[in-house]
Amino acid sequence: MRGWMFRWLLNILAIILTAVLLPGFEPTLWGIIIGSIFLGIINAVIRPILIFLTLPLNILSLGLFTLIINGFMLWLTSVTIVGFNINGFGWAVLSSVVLTIISATISFLVEDKWFYFR
């Protein structure tokens, strides 16, 4: 449970950094907290279905269509969660790219032992 909470806090930090870097992404603190939970849920439920349904398009684009799907997940979160504001679909795609880079960097820098708290 602690590992999940730590990963969630790192995800919140990544969303805050993305919001600081991009002017088209304007979430509030509560929007970030609730939005990160909702984003995690739709990434676990809806994203795999969309990846499967768009597999031919993903293969033709050599996987680049996944960026559009990630942007759609972020845009869907912004439409659903009050306070998680993104100014258009283009900003959602760009925000998802920046968020992915920041999240990957944070995950790379933080050792796995921190996730388990032995």
SSE inventory with pairings:
Elements (H helix, E strand, L loop, with lengths): L1 H20 L3 E3 L1 H25 L1 H6 L4 H16 L3 E3 L2 H21 L3 H4 L2
Antiparallel strand pairs: 1-2
Helix pairs in contact: 1-2, 1-5, 2-4, 4-5
Features:
single chain; 118 residues; mainly alpha; two-stranded antiparallel ribbon; 2 strands
How much helicity do the residues have?
A: over 70%
Shape: globular
Distance between the termini: 12 Å
Q: Going across the biggest sheet, name each strand in turn.
A: 1-2
Chain-averaged pLDDT: 89
Q: Strand-residue fraction?
A: 5-15%
In short:
This protein is mainly alpha-helical and 118 residues long. Helices cover 78% and strands 5% of the residues.
Walkthrough of the structure:
- With 118 residues, the protein is mainly α.
- It has one domain.
- 78% of the residues lie in helices and 5% in strands.
- The chain is built from 6 helices and 2 strands.
